Amino acid sequence: MTANAASRSAADWRVRIGAPLGAVLLRLLASTWRVRTLGSSAWRAADAQGRPTLLVLWHGQMLPLAWHMRRRDIHILVSEHRDGEIIARILHALGHHTVRGSTTRGGARALVEMVRLLKAGTTVAVTPDGPRGPARQMAPGALVAAARAGVTVTPLFVTADRAWHLRSWDAFMIPKPFARVVVHFGEPTTIVAASPTEAASQADAFAARIAPRGEDAGA
To answer: H or E segment at 56?
Structure first.
């Protein structure tokens, strides 16, 4: 077996074993979390009325948000990298759909698909600092997609009273067993832009809004 073939075989093993095992471990861990939301009233009203939005969240907070937003028919942008395949399979196990692509691979195709889904009335979620960072620096594609589709953008942020943070570029958050987890919803915002360049110019200002905020809106 060549070195490349061995590498592919090892990667396939990670996907076949890592994805289902990860889904089981997440269900066991997340079932102990005590989760509540803050500031979700506007988003929940729009969701109840069938009005789509583009959800934006930092890559390092994907795990608790994927759990909390499960079974809501959300399409999540996931990279085409090998690790993205494991993430995609775990998301599918939670009832999510995925759009494959990122700022580095398949970006144009993913942007077109996001716009199509949003125009069709589907909520889409994006990690605008993924898949490789820099952490919490917003790539402009999400705002461009929202402007083209004419939908609002809703920022999400997670806090936990105790959590592990991996030594990865995004300091990936894993709330510990029985952690108190709070999902913060920002105010849905319409991106007014006459061109993709104008939409992209708003990325840095919008990134500052992906932070804890909001009045208590219930769990």
So the answer is: strand 53-56
Q: Which two tokens stand for residue 208?
A: 């500052």
How many Cβ atoms sit within 10 Å of the Cβ of residue 50? 8
Specify whether the CB–CB gap between 219 and 187 falls below 8 A.
no
Cα–Cα separations (whole angstroms), residue 110 to 122, 135, 137? 15, 21, 19
Which pTM value belongs to this model?
Answer: 0.86
Give the tokens for residue 92.
Answer: 């599918």
Grouping H, G, I as helix, E, B as strand and the rest as coil, residue 151 is coil
Cis preceding-peptide flag for 131 (omega within 30 of 0): yes
The one-letter code for the residue type at 11 is: A
- CB–CB of 181/35 below 8 Å? yes
Predicted confidence (pLDDT) per residue in 163-217, tens digit: 999 999 999 999 999 999 999 999 999 999 989 899 999 999 999 999 886 544 4
**Angle, CA of 61, 36 and 165, to the nearest 5°:** 25
